[in-house]
Amino acid sequence: MKHIALFIFFLFIGIQSNAQFESNSKFKPIPPANMGVPINKTKPKEPEPEPSFAPEMPSIKAPNVFNSTSIIPKQPQTSTYQIGKEKSNFSMSTENGFANPGDRYVAGMEKDLNKSLRAEGLKEGRGELVKRNIDFGQIKTKSKYFIIKLRDFGAIDGDLVKVSSNSKVIVAQLFLESAFREVKIMLDPGFNKMDFEALNIGTLGGNTAEIKIYDDQNILMANDYWDNLATGFKASILVIKEE
After folding, report:
1. Is 24 helix (H, G, I), strand (E, B) or coil?
2. What is the CATH classification number for the domain harbouring 193?
3. What is the mean pLDDT of residues 218-223?
4. Which residue range forms the structural domain that includes residue 210?
5. What is the distance between the alpha carbons of residues 189 and 209, in angstroms, rounded to a whole number?
6. For residues 125 and 9, what is the distance between their CA atoms, to the nearest angstrom?
7. What number of other Cβ atoms are within 10 A of residue 187's Cβ?
8. Is 144 within a domain?
9. Beta bridge partners of 235
């Protein structure tokens, strides 16, 4: 019994000493096993930028005017004024060295042309007057009425016109102006003879007028004129109204 107790005592002392030894010893970590796989320690490459598909615009370079051989710098002008030298060519006149020498003849040529036109009855003036009636032809229509528009296509010089239809006076005296004046004429079944009589000649020459005729749908049916017509003569048009 005494031996058993002694054995237990020494066993307890041994266990306590071993525990104290292990607690005072320094901890040593176990290194990882080498698996044979190399570790790449280099920095990965950055991704390259995607290519741009925008078209490259050509650069614009401003021209250097100082490199141009066609530009010659002006030389400083020196005064040419001297005592006793002829007077300056400066003038307030509109004539210059660039005037057309033929311009002096234009006025005379225009005067001769106007004289010829008046003689042919193509221009107002004191030339030969048209002493005959003028026929504007005929028109067929189903319109109920016509709108007659008259004006003086030349200078306003007091031309007067009488408007009639089938010998019935529609307007006894119409003064021709630069703007059109309107006259409405109701159409009879069958034939309608419209007359436009020159009541006078203007102060600048024969009676001149432009005439436009529209139907009841505002459709232009005729457009004519008379020029340099003498007093008492007529311009006529025959209108046939169909049923």
Report:
1. helix
2. 2.60.60
3. 96
4. 134-241
5. 28
6. 165
7. 21
8. yes
9. 134, 196
Q: Residue 117 in 3-state DSSP?
A: helix
Written as six digits, the tokens of 51 are 């290519």
Residue 148: inside a domain, yes or no? yes
Decide if 3 is inside a domain: no
Q: pLDDT, tens digit, for every residue of 15-30? A: 655 555 454 555 555 5
pLDDT band at 205 (very low <50, low <70, confident <90, very high): confident
Q: What would the two tokens of residue 44 be? A: 């990965």
Query: Is 154:203 a contact under the CB 8 Å cutoff?
Result: no
pLDDT at 243: 84
**Amino acid at site 151:** R
**Per the structure, how many domains does the chain have?**
1
CA distance 188 to 103: 58
With tokens 């042309």, the residue in question is 113
State how far the Cα of 226 lies from the Cα of 177, in Å rounded to an integer.
15
Q: Does some domain include residue 128?
A: no
* 148: Cβ contacts below 8 Å, ≥ 6 apart: 163, 182, 183, 184, 185, 194, 211, 212, 213
Q: Which residue has the tokens 């189903």?
A: 142
